């Protein structure tokens, strides 16, 4: 089978994970790259041996040699680029979130339907080794039905600035940027139940705290300390039609002692923690057991996770597999995220 010819749209920081992973896959060929900043596109092209460089994604999509695209752009462009790529007959891997509104998500879903192509939403944590392990325990009914999950992704200082802090381009702050990962991870392992209602709060109390010294954090390429229109933190209770629920809190900045990443699942036969380290709680012969799997990495391995996601996408493009993160899940996640923002704005629970 010939190699899958890939174009990467957007040459910012996250594109590096896509480019490296495609380069490592023997069935993928890095065919083209596109960025509004031509110099940045040229730099990536030189690094990865890409011969076709574009600054207009529409011109790129007109190239019949491209089989599939990775979309690594600002959130506000995910929907139009995805729809254009699908209409051009390309399979699509788009970074999370799928888009910025539920209406956009449904438009992308319709484009998938009428194009007959696949769109894989970049829920990278679904493809990670520790997620696969817990999924196998769930499929063998070791944990029973997961009826409650809770997750935290707390940064005490970590507003990346740039487009991340510009609500017009990002759609929001920590909720839509990092919250989407932990919410989706819980929801996926709970069996993707239909959302019933959300009650959420967002806060803009601390700003980006650009004044803080002596503590380093990641900054976007276009970091501008003077511009910040997103929330500092958010929390929510998400209820599902089957009675299950998720409790979540996330932040870019918070007066917390330390950063925190926790993901916990509770079932009627057992429980599991994926972060900060993978562990399983069980009960045997009237005794509670804490089980530690013997694996290479008990936490999420960022590099390996992206490699697994990209490898899976290539197999999807080859017709060997169906994606683990289809567009329908992206739509449901947008309902949850937008519902949390709406709940906070209106000060009441939002029902679907």
Concise synopsis of the structure shown:
The protein is an alpha/beta fold. The protein contains ten helices and 15 strands.
The topology string of helices and strands comes to EHEHEHEHEHEHEHHEEEEEEEHHE
C-alpha end-to-end distance: 45 Å
Number of strands: 15
Shape: globular
Q: Work out the helix count.
A: 10
Any descriptors?
352 residues; alpha/beta; nine-stranded mixed β-sheet; six-stranded parallel β-sheet
What can you tell me about this protein's structure?
The chain has about 350 residues and is α/β, with parallel strands linked by helices. The protein contains ten helices and 15 strands. The protein has helices at about 15-25, 40-50, 55-60, 80-85, 100-115, 130-140, 165-170, 175-190, 300-315, 325-345, and strands at about 5-10, 30-35, 50-55, 70, 90-95, 120, 145-155, 195-205, 235-240, 245-250, 260-265, 270-275, 280-285, 285-290, 350. A nine-stranded mixed β-sheet has the order 14-13-12-11-7-10-9-8-15, covered by helices on one side. A six-stranded parallel β-sheet has the order 3-2-1-4-5-6, with helices on both faces. Helix 1 (about 15-25) links the parallel strand 1 (about 5-10) and strand 2 (about 30-35). Helix 1 (about 15-25) packs across helix 9, helix 4 packs parallel to helix 5 (about 100-115) and helix 5 (about 100-115) packs antiparallel against helix 10 (about 325-345). It is globular, with a radius of gyration of 20 Å. The termini are far apart.
């Amino acid at each position: 089978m010939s190699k899958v010819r890939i174009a990467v749209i957007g040459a910012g920081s996250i594109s590096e994970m896509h480019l490296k992973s495609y380069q490592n896959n023997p069935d993928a060929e890095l065919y083209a790259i596109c960025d509004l900043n031509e110099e940045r596109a040229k730099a990536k092209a030189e690094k990865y041996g890409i011969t076709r460089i574009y600054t207009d994604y529409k011109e790129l999509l007109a190239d019949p040699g491209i089989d599939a695209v990775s979309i690594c752009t600002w959130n506000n462009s995910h929907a139009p680029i995805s729809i254009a790529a699908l209409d051009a007959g390309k399979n699509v891997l788009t970074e999370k979130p799928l888009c910025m509104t539920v209406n956009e998500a449904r438009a992308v879903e319709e484009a998938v339907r009428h194009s007959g192509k696949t769109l894989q939403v970049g829920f990278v944590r679904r493809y990670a080794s520790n997620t696969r392990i817990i999924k196998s325990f769930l499929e063998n009914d070791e944990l029973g039905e997961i009826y409650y999950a809770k997750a935290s992704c707390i940064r005490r200082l970590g507003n990346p600035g740039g487009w991340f802090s510009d609500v017009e381009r990002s759609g929001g702050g920590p909720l839509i940027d990092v919250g989407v990962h932990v919410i989706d991870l819980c929801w996926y392992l709970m069996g993707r139940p239909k959302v019933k209602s959300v009650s959420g709060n967002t806060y803009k109390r601390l700003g980006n705290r650009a004044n803080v010294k002596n503590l380093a954090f990641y900054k976007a390429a276009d970091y501008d300390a003077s511009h910040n229109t997103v929330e500092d933190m958010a929390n929510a209770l998400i209820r599902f039609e089957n009675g299950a629920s998720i409790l979540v809190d996330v932040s870019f900045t918070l007066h917390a002692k330390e950063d925190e990443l926790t993901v916990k699942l509770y079932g009627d036969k057992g429980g599991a923690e994926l972060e900060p380290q993978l562990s399983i709680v069980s009960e045997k012969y009237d005794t509670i057991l804490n089980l530690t799997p013997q694996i290479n990495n008990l936490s999420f391995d960022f590099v390996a996770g992206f490699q697994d996601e990209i490898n899976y996408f290539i197999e999807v493009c080859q017709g060997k597999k169906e994606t683990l993160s289809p567009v329908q899940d992206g739509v449901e996640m947008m309902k949850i995220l937008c519902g949390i923002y709406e709940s906070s704005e209106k000060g009441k629970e939002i029902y679907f």
